[in-house]
Design goal:
Elements: H1 15-80, H2 83-86, H3 90-103, E1 108-115, E2 120-123, E3 135-136, E4 142-143, H4 148-156, E5 160-161, E6 165-166, E7 172-181, E8 187-196, H5 198-207, E9 211-215, E10 221-225, H6 240-247, E11 250-256, E12 262-269, E13 279-285, H7 286-289, H8 291-338, H9 353-418, H10 425-457, E14 462-465, H11 467-476, H12 478-483, E15 487-490, E16 495-498, H13 500-516, E17 524-532, E18 535-541, H14 574-584, E19 589-593, E20 599-606
Parallel strand pairs: 15-17
Antiparallel strand pairs: 1-2, 1-8, 3-4, 5-7, 6-7, 7-8, 9-10, 9-13, 11-12, 12-13, 14-16, 17-18, 18-20, 19-20
Helix pairs in contact: 1-5, 1-8, 8-9, 9-10, 11-13, 13-14
The chain binds adenosine-5'-diphosphate.
Adenosine-5'-diphosphate binds at residues 513-514, 517, 542, 544-545, 547, 555, 560-562, 565, 570-576, 599.
Domain HAMP: 321-374
GO molecular function, one term: phosphorelay sensor kinase activity
Organism: Solidesulfovibrio magneticus str. Maddingley MBC34
């Protein structure tokens, strides 16, 4: 028969499975760690890219302004060399300048030509507000002679670029001025152009969604886009933004922006060659700047989780199929063997070599056990048959022997009664011996018959209070106990599972012996019980002459009596009876005694769930 056991479904977290999951987790942990490390590296790279992008934006804006500056400077140099300036043609100058201003777009605010004595020759935008507004000389004539760019150019006879500064009407502007030299090398006129940051701010519109600002070296905000973020002219030198931006020519940092919230700020010097050059900075909100890096990390984490879960799922499924199920089947089969079902076999123990080997070994073991069990069954049967035969033999023998014995006894009696006058003293003694011998033989045969019936005629084991068979035995022995003034004491006796009638016989034999083999003093007998290793040990102790150790085993054999007992009646079968009864109950019997010290007979009885009869 092929035995199949379906896997038991007690709890989803089987021990083996949990172990398997743990092992898989351990195995994939380094890979997951590596992937996580890689993800973090990618994230750091994305952050670096975002920071580089912030600097790039600032550089692009600075480049726009620089290009613009170069163009204006070239324009001013060129204009200084034109005839209209050299010949001091006010109309020609104004016309040319206004045309050039119109062509050059936002960043160029005004162009002005001034004669050598500081008077205006002409300008592109006459009403340009504070840009190139003249001062009034002490004589009440409008003049530019006091302007620093004019005096510097007049003295150095070279072009000059003044740093960006706020005009009185609050506009950031810088002046580029060049001299128009005559053939004698003297300054004939000075051409100046006023540049603003409008071009830069306009390109910022398209270049970035973030805040763009321009900061003067002294910490004054020269421009801001969008305009509502901060007022132009605000002194921000104390802010960490200004401290960071002004500390180095170019770079990036995470600092609170103009609005106060943390930003990624990229910055660059506008005109690095010129002294007092302002710095342009670009603010990008941190969430926006690091959005790609965060997205990357989230994606990476999700992938990792997915890979981990798939790995665990596969391990779970394969573990169940390849390990847990076959092992559960084997456990079921082993339990069946434990219950004595030796016909159990495993059909296949799984695809794993070790398990199938285990399965084959299990099957071989089961076969071996089955064979042995069959062998054992056979022998037990033979033994039972032979026991029955023996019992039958004992019964028949004793039954058939009783008859001729009865004849011998009755005819010997007749002989004694009827022919007593004809027999002499010797003859009468011989007849008496014969009668006595025949009676003892009859008793022996009866004992043998009883002995043979202990196993087969015993009653079923039932729960019984040990006090009851003891009481019954004491009742049977009442006369003898009284006659010898014997005292029997007892301890607390337990419930046992036993054949109470046989226990009564057991107590009767042991207590009867204690009285029979008494010493000088009146017999004192104690019956106690104590629990040892799942069994009850019952002790019957007396104060008799004791038994020498060399006889401790012999006295439990059939017809074994000690030499000293020949004058006391007995067949040497009582203790053999006791042994047979105790062994039928699955226990053992022994004696502990020293000569002159009294004897204690012990026997064990199994627990209440003891053997079934
Ligand atoms: P018997 O019929 O002779 O009493 P048992 O089998 O009951 O046979 O006893 C065997 C021998 O063990 C006895 O002859 C006796 O010598 C010894 N014996 C048994 N019980 C005791 C006892 N309580 N004290 C001393 N000797 C004992």
């Amino acid at each position: 028969m092929v035995y199949r056991v379906t896997a038991s479904r007690q709890t989803p977290f089987h021990n083996l499975r949990a172990t398997l999951m743990g092992l898989v987790l351990l195995a994939i942990l380094p890979a997951l760690g590596l992937a996580l490390y890689h993800g973090l590296a990618l994230r750091a790279q994305a952050r670096n890219e975002a920071q580089a992008e912030a600097v790039k934006r600032a550089r692009n804006l600075a480049a726009v302004q620089k290009e613009h500056y170069e163009a204006v400077r070239r324009l001013v140099e060129t204009l200084a060399a034109t005839t209209v300036v050299r010949v001091i043609d006010p109309k020609g100058c104004s016309l040319l300048f206004s045309q050039l201003k119109a062509q050059s777009g936002e960043g160029l605010a005004n162009i002005l030509a001034v004669s050598a004595n500081g008077e205006a020759i002409g300008q592109a935008v006459p009403e340009a507000g504070d840009l190139f507004a003249p001062e009034t000389s002490p004589l009440g004539v409008p003049t530019y002679a006091g302007r620093s760019w004019f005096t510097t150019v007049s003295q150095t006879k070279a072009c000059v670029s003044e740093p960006f500064a706020l005009t009185p009407d609050g506009r950031p502007a810088m002046t580029v001025a060049c001299p128009a030299l005559g053939w004698d090398g003297q300054v004939k006129a000075v051409v100046a152009a006023s540049m603003t940051l409008d071009g830069l701010l306009q390109s910022a519109d398209a270049a970035t969604d973030g805040v763009v600002g321009v900061l003067a070296p002294d910490g004054v905000l020269l421009a801001a886009h969008p305009a509502e973020v901060a007022a132009v002219g605000t002194q921000v030198a104390g802010s960490s933004l200004a401290r960071t931006v002004l500390a180095s020519p170019s770079g990036n940092a995470e600092v609170p922006g103009l609005g106060g919230s943390p930003k990624l700020v990229g910055f660059d010097r506008l005109l690095p060659g010129l002294s007092g050059s302002p710095t342009v900075f670009v603010e990008i909100p941190l969430e926006e700047a690091y959005a790609p890096a965060r997205k990357l990390l989230v994606e990476q984490t999700l992938w990792l989780a997915l890979v981990g879960l798939v790995g665990l799922g596969v391990a779970w499924a394969l573990g169940s199929r390849l390990l847990v199920r076959p092992i559960t089947v084997m456990a079921g089969a082993a339990e069946a063997i434990g219950r004595g079902e030796f016909s159990v076999r495993l059909d296949a123990a799984g695809q794993i070599t070790e398990l199938s080997r285990l399965g084959r070994a299990f099957n071989r073991m089961a076969e071996g056990l089955e064979e042995r069990q069959a062998d054992l069954d056979q022998k037990t049967k033979e033994l039972e048959n032979s026991n029955k035969d023996l019992e039958q033999f004992a019964y028949v023998a004793s039954h058939d022997l009783q008859e001729p014995l009865r004849k011998i006894t009755s005819f010997a009696d007749l002989l004694a009664k009827r022919c007593s006058g004809q027999l002499d003293e010797n003859g009468q003694r011989y007849v008496a011996y014969m009668v006595d011998g025949a009676r003892r033989m009859s008793q022996l045969i009866t004992h043998l018959l009883d002995f043979s019936r202990i196993g087969s005629r015993g009653k079923a084991f039932v729960p019984a209070d040990l006090n009851e068979p003891l009481d019954a035995a004491l009742e049977n022995l009442e006369l003898s106990l009284q006659e010898h003034q014997a005292v029997v004491s007892r301890g607390a006796l337990p419930m046992v599972t036993a054949d109470a009638a046989q226990l009564c016989q057991l107590f009767q034999n042991l207590i009867g012996n204690a009285v029979k083999y008494r010493g000088q003093a009146a017999p004192a007998i104690a019956v106690t019980a104590e629990r040892r290793d799942k069994a009850w040990v019952v002790a019957v102790a007396d104060n008799g002459p004791g038994i020498a150790p060399q006889h401790h085993e012999r006295i439990f054999r059939m017809f074994q009596r000690l030499q000293a007992d020949q004058d006391r009646r007995g067949a040497g079968i009582g203790l053999a009876f006791c042994k047979r009864i105790v062994e039928r109950h699955g226990g053992r019997i022994w004696v502990e005694s020293e000569e002159g010290q009294g004897s204690t007979f012990f026997f064990t009885l199994p627990d209440a769930e003891g053997p079934s009869a």
